[in-house]
Specification:
This protein has about 180 residues and is of the alpha+beta class. It has 4 helices and 8 strands, in the order βααββαβββββα. It has one domain: Nuclear Transport Factor 2, Chain: A (Roll), CATH 3.10.450.50. Strands 1-8-4-5-6-7-2-3 form an 8-stranded mixed β-sheet. The protein starts with about 30 loop residues before the first strand and ends with a helix.
Length: about 180
């Protein structure tokens, strides 16, 4: 049974047809990686899991991501309930948007992950939104949801040199 987001059986965000703008309509404080102290005041164990989640997401490390998820983890973005369903949803998301990547950020004192899609025409990245996380008692990811980044978000901007890396991977995937 395929779970959908209610749009003609489509279970993912499609920037062309979904009411989600991939273009920044606000001015969050964007910082280059390592330009600013990233100590958010959040629980260090939770912060560590978020860092691992971002790294494993960008590496497309399915097994690594699975280790960070609570057994009953949820993600509305993926219409997923449960660790296995969520891992399957992430795999399909990567197939659909192979160049989607995450960076770290914060909204107030809450650590978040920023979702980016490369715009090769402008040689830049477009901010899709931020992932807010809820945590299980054992510091595993219990839930995450994609929302528009509020104006007070402080987000790492992806390194522009990564655009070439993503283009190389796209060619390999197509070849």
């Amino acid at each position: 049974m395929t779970k959908t987001n209610g749009r003609s059986g489509d279970r993912w965000i499609d920037p062309e047809s979904d009411p989600v703008s991939v273009y920044e309509t606000y001015e969050p404080d964007l910082v280059a990686p390592d330009d600013e102290d990233t100590d958010t005041g959040a629980d260090p164990a939770t912060e560590s899991v978020l860092v691992e989640f971002v790294e494993r997401f960008n590496a497309r490390d399915v097994d690594g991501i699975e280790e960070l998820l609570a057994p009953d983890a949820e993600a509305d973005l993926l219409s997923a309930r449960g660790r296995n369903d969520l891992v399957e949803g992430l795999t399909e998301l990567w197939e659909r948007y192979p160049s989607l990547l995450l960076t770290r950020g914060e909204v107030g004192s809450e650590p978040v992950a920023a979702a980016w899609i490369p715009d090769t025409e402008r040689a830049d990245f477009d901010l899709l939104g931020v992932l807010h996380f809820e945590w299980a008692d054992d510091n595993l990811v219990a839930r995450f949801e994609l929302v528009e980044a509020p104006p007070d978000a402080v987000l790492e901007r992806p390194d522009l040199s990564e655009l070439n890396e993503w283009e190389d991977w796209r060619i390999v995937d197509e070849g």
